[in-house]
Design brief:
Helices cover 48% and strands 10% of the residues. It is of the alpha+beta class. The longest helix is centred in the middle third of the chain and has 24 residues, at 275-298. It starts with a strand and ends with a helix.
Length: 468
Protein backbone atom coordinates (compact mmCIF):
# COMPACT_ATOMS: atom_id res chain seq x y z
CA UNK A 1 0.00 0.00 0.00
CA UNK A 2 1.36 3.45 -0.89
CA UNK A 3 1.74 5.85 2.02
CA UNK A 4 0.04 9.23 1.71
CA UNK A 5 2.07 12.09 3.19
CA UNK A 6 0.17 14.97 4.74
CA UNK A 7 1.36 18.24 6.34
CA UNK A 8 1.57 18.27 10.10
CA UNK A 9 1.82 21.10 12.63
CA UNK A 10 4.84 23.37 12.13
CA UNK A 11 5.47 22.17 8.57
CA UNK A 12 6.37 18.58 9.52
CA UNK A 13 5.33 15.78 7.19
CA UNK A 14 3.65 12.63 8.49
CA UNK A 15 2.12 9.51 6.98
CA UNK A 16 -1.66 9.43 6.92
CA UNK A 17 -2.86 6.14 8.34
CA UNK A 18 -0.25 6.06 11.11
CA UNK A 19 -1.76 4.79 14.34
CA UNK A 20 -2.68 7.67 16.64
CA UNK A 21 -1.30 5.81 19.65
CA UNK A 22 2.11 5.39 17.99
CA UNK A 23 2.61 9.13 17.66
CA UNK A 24 4.53 10.83 20.52
CA UNK A 25 1.71 13.38 20.82
CA UNK A 26 -0.70 10.70 22.08
CA UNK A 27 1.06 10.01 25.42
CA UNK A 28 1.46 13.78 25.82
CA UNK A 29 -2.30 14.20 25.31
CA UNK A 30 -3.07 11.43 27.79
CA UNK A 31 -0.75 12.89 30.40
CA UNK A 32 -2.31 16.36 30.09
CA UNK A 33 -5.86 14.97 30.35
CA UNK A 34 -4.92 12.84 33.37
CA UNK A 35 -3.45 15.93 35.02
CA UNK A 36 -6.71 17.84 34.53
CA UNK A 37 -9.17 15.10 35.58
CA UNK A 38 -8.49 15.14 39.38
CA UNK A 39 -9.02 18.91 39.47
CA UNK A 40 -12.58 18.63 38.11
CA UNK A 41 -15.78 18.61 40.13
CA UNK A 42 -18.63 16.19 39.42
CA UNK A 43 -20.12 18.57 36.83
CA UNK A 44 -16.76 18.97 35.06
CA UNK A 45 -15.91 22.44 36.37
CA UNK A 46 -12.74 23.31 38.29
CA UNK A 47 -13.18 24.94 41.70
CA UNK A 48 -9.96 26.85 42.26
CA UNK A 49 -10.90 27.43 45.91
CA UNK A 50 -11.09 23.69 46.65
CA UNK A 51 -8.36 21.92 48.58
CA UNK A 52 -5.66 20.63 46.25
CA UNK A 53 -6.86 22.76 43.32
CA UNK A 54 -4.21 24.17 40.98
CA UNK A 55 -3.60 27.79 40.19
CA UNK A 56 -5.68 28.87 37.20
CA UNK A 57 -2.57 29.41 35.07
CA UNK A 58 -1.56 25.79 35.78
CA UNK A 59 -4.92 24.53 34.47
CA UNK A 60 -4.58 26.82 31.44
CA UNK A 61 -1.14 25.38 30.70
CA UNK A 62 -2.48 21.80 30.90
CA UNK A 63 -5.32 22.63 28.50
CA UNK A 64 -2.76 24.23 26.23
CA UNK A 65 -0.90 20.92 26.09
CA UNK A 66 -4.14 19.12 25.22
CA UNK A 67 -4.74 21.59 22.39
CA UNK A 68 -1.22 21.24 21.00
CA UNK A 69 -1.48 17.44 21.06
CA UNK A 70 -4.85 17.48 19.28
CA UNK A 71 -3.47 19.82 16.62
CA UNK A 72 -0.43 17.56 16.18
CA UNK A 73 -2.54 14.40 15.82
CA UNK A 74 -5.31 15.89 13.68
CA UNK A 75 -3.46 15.49 10.32
CA UNK A 76 -3.46 11.73 10.91
CA UNK A 77 -7.26 11.87 10.77
CA UNK A 78 -8.23 14.18 7.89
CA UNK A 79 -11.83 12.88 7.98
CA UNK A 80 -12.26 14.49 11.43
CA UNK A 81 -10.67 17.90 10.84
CA UNK A 82 -13.89 19.83 11.48
CA UNK A 83 -14.36 18.06 14.81
CA UNK A 84 -10.79 18.72 15.93
CA UNK A 85 -11.10 22.41 15.05
CA UNK A 86 -14.36 22.67 17.01
CA UNK A 87 -12.78 20.72 19.89
CA UNK A 88 -9.88 23.16 20.10
CA UNK A 89 -12.42 25.99 20.10
CA UNK A 90 -14.40 24.43 22.97
CA UNK A 91 -11.23 23.80 25.00
CA UNK A 92 -10.18 27.44 24.57
CA UNK A 93 -13.66 28.70 25.53
CA UNK A 94 -13.62 26.51 28.64
CA UNK A 95 -10.29 27.96 29.74
CA UNK A 96 -11.26 31.54 28.82
CA UNK A 97 -14.45 31.20 30.84
CA UNK A 98 -12.55 30.29 34.00
CA UNK A 99 -13.17 26.53 33.78
CA UNK A 100 -16.84 26.60 34.72
CA UNK A 101 -19.22 23.79 33.79
CA UNK A 102 -17.86 22.69 30.38
CA UNK A 103 -19.94 23.08 27.25
CA UNK A 104 -18.70 21.05 24.29
CA UNK A 105 -21.86 21.23 22.19
CA UNK A 106 -20.06 22.76 19.21
CA UNK A 107 -17.52 19.95 19.03
CA UNK A 108 -20.21 17.34 19.68
CA UNK A 109 -22.19 18.64 16.70
CA UNK A 110 -19.04 18.60 14.57
CA UNK A 111 -18.24 15.00 15.49
CA UNK A 112 -20.03 12.90 12.86
CA UNK A 113 -18.35 9.46 12.81
CA UNK A 114 -21.40 7.65 11.41
CA UNK A 115 -21.19 9.75 8.24
CA UNK A 116 -18.15 7.76 7.13
CA UNK A 117 -18.11 4.17 8.34
CA UNK A 118 -15.06 2.30 7.10
CA UNK A 119 -13.35 -0.73 8.59
CA UNK A 120 -10.22 0.29 10.49
CA UNK A 121 -10.90 4.05 10.33
CA UNK A 122 -9.37 5.76 13.37
CA UNK A 123 -10.85 8.49 15.57
CA UNK A 124 -9.42 10.63 18.33
CA UNK A 125 -12.16 11.56 20.81
CA UNK A 126 -11.76 14.16 23.57
CA UNK A 127 -14.79 15.27 25.60
CA UNK A 128 -15.82 16.07 29.18
CA UNK A 129 -18.12 13.14 29.86
CA UNK A 130 -19.24 10.45 32.25
CA UNK A 131 -18.73 6.83 31.23
CA UNK A 132 -21.67 4.45 31.57
CA UNK A 133 -20.86 1.65 34.06
CA UNK A 134 -17.63 3.52 34.69
CA UNK A 135 -17.01 7.04 36.00
CA UNK A 136 -20.20 8.96 36.98
CA UNK A 137 -18.51 12.38 36.82
CA UNK A 138 -18.12 14.54 33.72
CA UNK A 139 -14.33 14.45 33.57
CA UNK A 140 -12.26 15.20 30.51
CA UNK A 141 -11.48 11.95 28.69
CA UNK A 142 -9.37 11.05 25.67
CA UNK A 143 -9.95 7.91 23.62
CA UNK A 144 -8.19 6.62 20.54
CA UNK A 145 -10.41 4.13 18.74
CA UNK A 146 -10.82 2.22 15.52
CA UNK A 147 -14.02 1.50 13.62
CA UNK A 148 -15.24 -2.06 13.00
CA UNK A 149 -17.19 -2.09 9.74
CA UNK A 150 -16.33 -5.17 7.63
CA UNK A 151 -18.13 -5.59 4.33
CA UNK A 152 -20.30 -8.48 5.56
CA UNK A 153 -21.63 -6.27 8.39
CA UNK A 154 -22.11 -3.28 6.10
CA UNK A 155 -24.09 -5.49 3.72
CA UNK A 156 -26.38 -6.73 6.52
CA UNK A 157 -26.98 -3.15 7.68
CA UNK A 158 -27.62 -1.98 4.12
CA UNK A 159 -30.04 -4.76 3.17
CA UNK A 160 -31.57 -6.04 6.41
CA UNK A 161 -30.84 -4.20 9.66
CA UNK A 162 -30.84 -0.52 8.75
CA UNK A 163 -29.03 1.35 11.49
CA UNK A 164 -27.32 4.43 10.05
CA UNK A 165 -26.24 5.77 13.46
CA UNK A 166 -24.54 2.63 14.78
CA UNK A 167 -20.77 2.40 15.27
CA UNK A 168 -18.91 -0.80 15.98
CA UNK A 169 -15.63 0.31 17.55
CA UNK A 170 -12.54 -1.03 19.34
CA UNK A 171 -10.17 0.63 21.78
CA UNK A 172 -6.68 1.67 20.81
CA UNK A 173 -6.05 3.45 24.12
CA UNK A 174 -7.90 5.60 26.68
CA UNK A 175 -7.72 7.73 29.81
CA UNK A 176 -8.88 6.69 33.28
CA UNK A 177 -12.64 7.04 32.76
CA UNK A 178 -12.46 4.07 30.41
CA UNK A 179 -10.19 2.01 32.65
CA UNK A 180 -13.51 0.73 33.95
CA UNK A 181 -16.35 -1.58 32.92
CA UNK A 182 -17.70 0.95 30.39
CA UNK A 183 -18.00 -0.43 26.86
CA UNK A 184 -19.93 2.39 25.16
CA UNK A 185 -19.32 5.81 23.67
CA UNK A 186 -22.61 7.70 23.71
CA UNK A 187 -23.23 11.38 22.92
CA UNK A 188 -25.77 11.56 25.76
CA UNK A 189 -22.92 11.39 28.28
CA UNK A 190 -21.09 14.52 27.07
CA UNK A 191 -21.25 17.88 28.88
CA UNK A 192 -23.21 20.37 26.74
CA UNK A 193 -25.29 23.49 27.38
CA UNK A 194 -28.35 21.85 25.85
CA UNK A 195 -29.13 18.49 24.29
CA UNK A 196 -29.08 18.48 20.48
CA UNK A 197 -32.40 17.93 18.72
CA UNK A 198 -31.21 14.47 17.76
CA UNK A 199 -28.13 12.36 18.28
CA UNK A 200 -26.39 11.16 15.14
CA UNK A 201 -24.21 8.29 16.37
CA UNK A 202 -23.70 5.74 19.13
CA UNK A 203 -20.66 3.51 19.58
CA UNK A 204 -20.10 0.19 21.35
CA UNK A 205 -16.64 -1.28 22.00
CA UNK A 206 -16.96 -4.84 20.76
CA UNK A 207 -13.38 -5.71 21.76
CA UNK A 208 -14.09 -5.04 25.44
CA UNK A 209 -17.40 -6.88 25.25
CA UNK A 210 -15.75 -9.88 23.58
CA UNK A 211 -12.75 -10.04 25.93
CA UNK A 212 -14.98 -9.73 29.01
CA UNK A 213 -17.43 -12.32 27.62
CA UNK A 214 -14.63 -14.81 27.01
CA UNK A 215 -13.16 -14.46 30.49
CA UNK A 216 -16.48 -14.67 32.35
CA UNK A 217 -17.82 -17.47 30.15
CA UNK A 218 -14.68 -19.58 30.56
CA UNK A 219 -14.93 -19.19 34.34
CA UNK A 220 -18.68 -19.97 34.35
CA UNK A 221 -18.21 -23.09 32.21
CA UNK A 222 -15.54 -24.29 34.62
CA UNK A 223 -17.52 -23.45 37.78
CA UNK A 224 -20.78 -24.97 36.50
CA UNK A 225 -19.25 -27.96 34.71
CA UNK A 226 -20.98 -27.12 31.42
CA UNK A 227 -20.22 -29.35 28.46
CA UNK A 228 -20.00 -27.04 25.46
CA UNK A 229 -20.55 -28.12 21.85
CA UNK A 230 -17.22 -28.13 20.02
CA UNK A 231 -17.95 -25.12 17.82
CA UNK A 232 -19.08 -22.99 20.75
CA UNK A 233 -16.06 -24.01 22.83
CA UNK A 234 -13.87 -22.90 19.91
CA UNK A 235 -15.70 -19.56 19.69
CA UNK A 236 -15.08 -18.77 23.37
CA UNK A 237 -11.32 -19.07 22.82
CA UNK A 238 -11.32 -16.86 19.69
CA UNK A 239 -11.27 -13.09 20.36
CA UNK A 240 -11.76 -12.05 16.73
CA UNK A 241 -14.70 -14.40 16.26
CA UNK A 242 -16.33 -13.11 19.45
CA UNK A 243 -15.86 -9.50 18.34
CA UNK A 244 -17.74 -10.28 15.13
CA UNK A 245 -20.56 -11.85 17.13
CA UNK A 246 -20.81 -8.85 19.42
CA UNK A 247 -20.75 -6.20 16.72
CA UNK A 248 -23.62 -7.97 14.93
CA UNK A 249 -25.54 -8.47 18.19
CA UNK A 250 -25.05 -4.79 19.08
CA UNK A 251 -26.17 -3.53 15.68
CA UNK A 252 -29.44 -5.48 15.77
CA UNK A 253 -30.02 -4.71 19.46
CA UNK A 254 -29.49 -0.98 18.94
CA UNK A 255 -31.98 -0.67 16.08
CA UNK A 256 -34.63 -2.70 17.95
CA UNK A 257 -35.19 0.14 20.42
CA UNK A 258 -36.97 2.04 17.67
CA UNK A 259 -38.72 -0.93 16.03
CA UNK A 260 -41.76 -2.99 16.95
CA UNK A 261 -44.75 -2.20 19.18
CA UNK A 262 -44.33 0.49 21.83
CA UNK A 263 -40.71 1.38 21.05
CA UNK A 264 -39.27 3.82 23.55
CA UNK A 265 -36.15 5.71 24.52
CA UNK A 266 -33.51 3.32 25.86
CA UNK A 267 -32.59 6.04 28.38
CA UNK A 268 -36.15 5.83 29.77
CA UNK A 269 -34.91 4.91 33.25
CA UNK A 270 -34.31 8.64 33.71
CA UNK A 271 -37.98 9.24 32.97
CA UNK A 272 -39.30 7.75 36.23
CA UNK A 273 -40.47 4.34 35.13
CA UNK A 274 -39.99 1.15 37.17
CA UNK A 275 -36.63 -0.44 36.44
CA UNK A 276 -38.20 -3.73 35.31
CA UNK A 277 -39.63 -1.83 32.33
CA UNK A 278 -36.12 -0.93 31.20
CA UNK A 279 -35.00 -4.47 32.02
CA UNK A 280 -37.68 -5.89 29.73
CA UNK A 281 -36.81 -3.41 26.97
CA UNK A 282 -33.12 -4.31 27.05
CA UNK A 283 -33.97 -8.02 27.12
CA UNK A 284 -36.44 -7.58 24.23
CA UNK A 285 -33.69 -6.02 22.15
CA UNK A 286 -31.24 -8.80 23.01
CA UNK A 287 -33.78 -11.53 22.31
CA UNK A 288 -34.67 -9.89 19.00
CA UNK A 289 -30.98 -10.12 18.11
CA UNK A 290 -31.10 -13.76 19.21
CA UNK A 291 -34.17 -14.43 17.05
CA UNK A 292 -32.50 -12.81 14.03
CA UNK A 293 -29.36 -14.85 14.69
CA UNK A 294 -31.42 -18.06 14.55
CA UNK A 295 -32.71 -16.97 11.13
CA UNK A 296 -29.21 -16.07 9.95
CA UNK A 297 -27.87 -19.45 11.03
CA UNK A 298 -30.65 -21.21 9.13
CA UNK A 299 -29.60 -19.24 6.04
CA UNK A 300 -25.98 -20.31 6.38
CA UNK A 301 -24.56 -17.13 7.93
CA UNK A 302 -21.42 -18.13 9.83
CA UNK A 303 -22.02 -15.57 12.61
CA UNK A 304 -25.62 -16.55 13.45
CA UNK A 305 -24.88 -19.36 15.89
CA UNK A 306 -22.12 -17.35 17.59
CA UNK A 307 -24.52 -14.47 18.30
CA UNK A 308 -27.02 -16.85 19.88
CA UNK A 309 -24.54 -18.17 22.42
CA UNK A 310 -23.00 -14.78 23.05
CA UNK A 311 -26.48 -13.57 24.04
CA UNK A 312 -27.28 -16.66 26.12
CA UNK A 313 -24.03 -16.84 28.05
CA UNK A 314 -23.52 -13.12 28.63
CA UNK A 315 -27.13 -12.69 29.72
CA UNK A 316 -27.23 -15.80 31.94
CA UNK A 317 -23.78 -15.68 33.55
CA UNK A 318 -22.41 -12.11 33.63
CA UNK A 319 -25.41 -9.78 33.65
CA UNK A 320 -27.20 -11.04 36.80
CA UNK A 321 -24.11 -10.88 39.02
CA UNK A 322 -22.53 -7.66 37.68
CA UNK A 323 -22.92 -4.29 39.40
CA UNK A 324 -24.86 -3.59 42.57
CA UNK A 325 -28.45 -4.62 43.26
CA UNK A 326 -29.90 -1.10 43.14
CA UNK A 327 -32.44 -1.17 40.28
CA UNK A 328 -30.14 -3.40 38.26
CA UNK A 329 -32.24 -3.65 35.11
CA UNK A 330 -29.66 -5.58 33.05
CA UNK A 331 -29.22 -8.03 35.90
CA UNK A 332 -32.99 -8.48 36.05
CA UNK A 333 -33.15 -9.35 32.35
CA UNK A 334 -30.47 -12.01 32.79
CA UNK A 335 -32.25 -13.48 35.81
CA UNK A 336 -35.50 -13.63 33.83
CA UNK A 337 -33.89 -15.40 30.87
CA UNK A 338 -32.30 -18.03 33.09
CA UNK A 339 -35.49 -18.59 35.13
CA UNK A 340 -37.56 -18.92 31.94
CA UNK A 341 -35.18 -21.50 30.48
CA UNK A 342 -35.04 -23.32 33.81
CA UNK A 343 -38.82 -23.52 34.18
CA UNK A 344 -39.06 -24.84 30.63
CA UNK A 345 -36.40 -27.47 31.39
CA UNK A 346 -33.82 -26.10 28.95
CA UNK A 347 -31.31 -25.58 31.75
CA UNK A 348 -31.05 -27.80 34.81
CA UNK A 349 -28.75 -27.31 37.82
CA UNK A 350 -28.13 -30.67 39.42
CA UNK A 351 -25.15 -31.89 41.46
CA UNK A 352 -23.68 -28.39 41.13
CA UNK A 353 -23.48 -28.83 37.36
CA UNK A 354 -25.48 -26.94 34.78
CA UNK A 355 -26.85 -28.97 31.91
CA UNK A 356 -28.20 -27.20 28.81
CA UNK A 357 -30.53 -28.68 26.22
CA UNK A 358 -28.75 -27.22 23.20
CA UNK A 359 -31.42 -28.41 20.76
CA UNK A 360 -34.34 -26.70 22.55
CA UNK A 361 -32.53 -23.54 23.67
CA UNK A 362 -33.23 -21.51 20.49
CA UNK A 363 -36.94 -22.41 20.40
CA UNK A 364 -37.60 -21.63 24.07
CA UNK A 365 -35.55 -18.43 24.04
CA UNK A 366 -37.59 -17.23 21.08
CA UNK A 367 -40.70 -18.14 23.06
CA UNK A 368 -39.72 -15.69 25.81
CA UNK A 369 -39.13 -13.02 23.16
CA UNK A 370 -42.66 -13.65 21.88
CA UNK A 371 -44.12 -13.24 25.40
CA UNK A 372 -42.43 -9.85 25.78
CA UNK A 373 -43.60 -8.80 22.31
CA UNK A 374 -47.17 -9.83 23.22
CA UNK A 375 -46.92 -7.70 26.37
CA UNK A 376 -45.87 -4.69 24.31
CA UNK A 377 -48.56 -5.22 21.69
CA UNK A 378 -51.29 -5.43 24.33
CA UNK A 379 -49.79 -2.42 26.11
CA UNK A 380 -50.79 -0.15 23.22
CA UNK A 381 -54.40 -0.36 24.49
CA UNK A 382 -53.57 0.01 28.20
CA UNK A 383 -52.98 3.00 30.46
CA UNK A 384 -49.37 3.34 31.57
CA UNK A 385 -49.94 2.11 35.13
CA UNK A 386 -51.87 -0.96 33.95
CA UNK A 387 -49.04 -1.72 31.51
CA UNK A 388 -46.52 -1.51 34.33
CA UNK A 389 -48.54 -3.97 36.41
CA UNK A 390 -48.88 -6.38 33.48
CA UNK A 391 -45.12 -6.23 32.97
CA UNK A 392 -44.66 -6.91 36.68
CA UNK A 393 -46.92 -9.96 36.36
CA UNK A 394 -44.83 -11.31 33.51
CA UNK A 395 -41.58 -10.92 35.44
CA UNK A 396 -43.00 -12.24 38.72
CA UNK A 397 -44.33 -15.33 36.95
CA UNK A 398 -40.72 -16.47 36.70
CA UNK A 399 -38.87 -14.47 39.38
CA UNK A 400 -39.91 -14.28 43.04
CA UNK A 401 -40.42 -10.65 44.18
CA UNK A 402 -38.95 -9.43 47.45
CA UNK A 403 -41.28 -10.50 50.31
CA UNK A 404 -41.55 -6.86 51.44
CA UNK A 405 -42.65 -5.56 48.04
CA UNK A 406 -45.75 -3.36 47.84
CA UNK A 407 -45.93 -3.87 44.09
CA UNK A 408 -46.14 -7.64 44.56
CA UNK A 409 -49.30 -7.13 46.65
CA UNK A 410 -51.01 -5.44 43.73
CA UNK A 411 -52.83 -2.12 43.18
CA UNK A 412 -54.64 -2.26 46.53
CA UNK A 413 -51.30 -1.88 48.34
CA UNK A 414 -50.41 1.31 46.43
CA UNK A 415 -51.90 4.79 46.39
CA UNK A 416 -53.07 4.71 42.78
CA UNK A 417 -54.53 8.21 43.10
CA UNK A 418 -50.97 9.47 42.63
CA UNK A 419 -49.41 9.97 39.19
CA UNK A 420 -47.70 6.75 37.99
CA UNK A 421 -44.21 8.26 38.31
CA UNK A 422 -44.80 8.80 42.05
CA UNK A 423 -45.45 5.08 42.50
CA UNK A 424 -41.91 4.37 41.33
CA UNK A 425 -40.85 5.43 44.85
CA UNK A 426 -42.56 2.28 46.14
CA UNK A 427 -40.32 0.04 44.02
CA UNK A 428 -37.65 -1.60 46.17
CA UNK A 429 -34.01 -1.13 45.11
CA UNK A 430 -33.80 -4.93 44.81
CA UNK A 431 -37.38 -5.74 43.83
CA UNK A 432 -36.41 -9.18 42.48
CA UNK A 433 -33.52 -10.54 44.60
CA UNK A 434 -31.06 -13.10 43.30
CA UNK A 435 -32.12 -16.74 43.42
CA UNK A 436 -30.08 -19.31 45.33
CA UNK A 437 -28.46 -20.35 42.05
CA UNK A 438 -27.20 -16.82 41.45
CA UNK A 439 -26.25 -16.26 45.08
CA UNK A 440 -23.92 -19.25 44.73
CA UNK A 441 -22.63 -18.21 41.30
CA UNK A 442 -22.04 -14.60 42.37
CA UNK A 443 -19.62 -15.65 45.10
CA UNK A 444 -17.51 -17.60 42.63
CA UNK A 445 -17.66 -15.10 39.75
CA UNK A 446 -17.22 -11.89 41.74
CA UNK A 447 -13.44 -11.81 41.41
CA UNK A 448 -13.49 -12.78 37.74
CA UNK A 449 -15.92 -9.98 36.85
CA UNK A 450 -13.91 -7.45 38.88
CA UNK A 451 -10.78 -8.50 36.98
CA UNK A 452 -12.37 -7.49 33.66
CA UNK A 453 -12.26 -3.79 34.62
CA UNK A 454 -10.51 -1.96 31.79
CA UNK A 455 -10.13 -5.14 29.72
CA UNK A 456 -9.47 -4.92 25.98
CA UNK A 457 -8.40 -7.47 23.39
CA UNK A 458 -4.80 -6.28 23.72
CA UNK A 459 -4.42 -6.38 27.49
CA UNK A 460 -6.37 -9.65 27.73
CA UNK A 461 -3.93 -11.20 25.26
CA UNK A 462 -0.96 -9.95 27.28
CA UNK A 463 -2.48 -11.39 30.48
CA UNK A 464 -2.98 -14.77 28.78
CA UNK A 465 0.65 -14.83 27.64
CA UNK A 466 1.86 -14.03 31.16
CA UNK A 467 -0.37 -16.74 32.65
CA UNK A 468 0.96 -19.27 30.13
Amino acid sequence: MTETLVPGVGGTVIAAGTRVVDDPAWPELKAAVEEIRPWQSKDGSIDFEAEGAPAQHTAEAAVGRVIRAVETLSPLLPHATAYHEALVGDLRKWAAGGFGVPDFLDSLLAFQPAAERADGLQHLVVFPMYTQNGNPDRNLEAVALKMVWPEWLAELERTRYDNPLFLGITFEDFTAGYDTHSAVLFPETIAVREAPERFTWGGIFCDREAARFRKVTEASVDILGIELPGDIAAMVTDQERCEKAFVLWDMVHDRTHSHGDLPFDPFMIKQRQPFWMYGLEELRCDLTAFKEAVKLESEGNEHGRDVQYAVLFDRMFRFPVSGDRNRNYDGLGGQLLFAYLHKHDVVRWTDNKLKIDWMRAPQVTNQLCAEIEDLYRAGIDRPKLVHWFKAYELVSTYLAPHPGSKWAKGPDALDVTQPPRKLVDDVLPDEFPLSMFYEALAKKLKGVIASTKGITALNAERAERVAA
